[in-house]
Design a protein that fits this description.
It is flat and about 40 Å long. By secondary structure, the chain is an all-alpha fold. Helix content is 78%, strand content 0%.
């Protein structure tokens, strides 16, 4: 882990987000969830295309080039890497 990263806080944040996701999933209409998943896939494809064209996975550049926040760009770039899509 990088300097200044508190693994306990990171873990707690992840647990909180999973709990929030479970709560939302319980009350979300399946059609809305499907639309969200389609939107997220389109966004991921846009980020992957930007990275391929720009030749850079720099979060700030991805954010600026796609209109995402830097944390959003980091999330999607990390997800794409984990899935082996970039």
């Amino acid at each position: 882990m990088g300097a200044g990263v508190d693994p306990r806080k990171m873990c707690q944040s992840l647990v909180t987000k999973v709990a929030q996701f479970k709560q939302l999933q319980a009350v979300t209409d399946p059609e809305i969830l499907m639309l969200f998943e389609d939107w997220l896939e389109e966004l991921e494809n846009e980020v992957a295309a930007f990275i391929k064209a720009a030749g850079s996975e720099n979060y700030a550049a991805v954010a600026q080039g796609t209109g995402l926040s830097q944390s959003g760009a980091k999330f999607i770039v990390t997800k794409l890497k984990r899935e082996g899509r970039i």
